[in-house]
């Protein structure tokens, strides 16, 4: 029996949950919600790091704390306002001040950082190839960035279709690296209710999916 079709659409802007009748939207949400309810469920967390080109770093002394990043041009995401770090001596929050570039497209920012235009904060896996090829170096490896948390956002807060629950449960299973849960345990799990200021939520590369039964 062939697998049912799954249509995915990638957007580098706000994702309209209701207008396009998505079954589920996967999005990186990095802000608090206000009143009005939207269901969210965390799918995974992705390690992030700070990266720059070797040519750019040859012009600067070695960095010791995240505060040293203020000396560089920053290549920021469309909604980036600050970056949180944990490392020797505790936590540090860095404000994103007048970045050289803002783009919700991580691919564009990756090309810019390889060209030596500045410093980027991005998921570590996204930079693996460039690191292996010597096109990028990781900065402040002893400091841990806040991970990129990916959430699933079904448009209906109370009625989550069974086809969406199956997808979310499978993603959760893969993230844990465990064994498949029983149907009873799966049905007993609840989606956490959060709040959103409007149907269009911040989406750093939001992925909307229509799942056909």
TrEMBL record:
A Gene Ontology BP annotation from the UniProt entry: DNA-templated transcription
Pfam families: LysR_substrate
GO MF entries: DNA-binding transcription factor activity; sequence-specific DNA binding
Key words, A-Z: DNA-binding
Domain LysR substrate-binding: 13-171
Similarity comment: family membership: Belongs to the LysR transcriptional regulatory family.
The protein's name: DNA-binding transcriptional LysR family regulator
